[in-house]
Amino acid sequence: MAQNVDTQLLKAERIFSVEGWVCLVTGGGTGIGLMCAQALAANGARVYIAGRRKHVLDSAAVAHSPHDGPGQIIPIGPCDVTSKADLEKLCKELESREDHLNVLVCNAGISGPKAVPDLSDATQLRARLWEKEEPSEWDGVFRTNVTSVYFTTVAFLPLLQAASTRPAQQQQHATASGSPRHLWMGANVIVISSMSGLMRGSQGHFSYNAAKGATVHLTKLMATEFDKTGIRVNSIAPGYFPSEMTMSDSDARGKSYLSDDIVQGKGHPIPAARAGSDEEMAQACLFLAKNRYVNGEILVVDGGVLTQVPGR
Ligand code: NDP
Question: Which family does it belong to (predicted)?
């Protein structure tokens, strides 16, 4: 039965604390993955960041590990999430350091080929789409954005379940009652999908939007099918955020900058008229990480885009 708690127990610093938690973020050295890693570390977690470029992970960890408080950002890997062998190696490396994993953020992703379908002549449309895209490019986009999310999650299920079943006294800020039922659904996976997977327009990249649609559905499938393990699976569907994907580059600290002008030139209405911020991604990440009553949810953080373009 739900119980009443004192008002002071509802302070943000308590209900969003991840102190002592162990987290892993794929693609955590730049962009949205780095924002999630910072959010979790700032609130007390030991956050491992993985990716293919070791130097990017190392410099992001040095630049962004919190100076005050117990949280840490720790490079691990390198790991290519499209390789089962690499995932197995990553899993073993993490198991050698930690006996459980509270949060897995499946964030690594790539964009795909671009071919804008804004032609009414079918012959011209065919020529453009046929010539500008290759099946191998579609395979690559699906392999990183969908297939790897599945295999990364599967690889870490035992370590995640080990967090869910840890005794209450070992779980920081578990619940007021600490009953086994309340501890259930503690460990969780956050999949970074996209608003692109929910809208009906292709934005000139069919393969990416189709892949992200699959990422959204995969999240729902895993939430339902893995329910018995006590591991929640949710997704954040971001709109425009600064990253290497959106700006093709990042600085020495793994950060990118996305101006209002660029966002407003995307060809569809963006009510917020700007990119999303580190804080806004952090709020979404902490909400899904901590709220045990949310499972199988797709949390859209898009500055209102999907209120304006055909989508959900
Ligand atoms: P970035 O390119 O900055 O981040 C992607 C990260 O994933 C990189 O750090 C990259 O590191 C890593 N990565 C890519 N491929 C692999 C791989 N095969 N194995 C391991 N790591 C990999 O872009 P974003 O921050 O934008 O992208 C993060 C996620 O957010 C993606 O899933 C993207 O689709 C999604 N997204 C982004 C939006 C945005 O506006 N930024 C909007 C909606 C969704 P490395 O190259 O070193 O491996």
Answer: Belongs to the short-chain dehydrogenases/reductases (SDR) family.
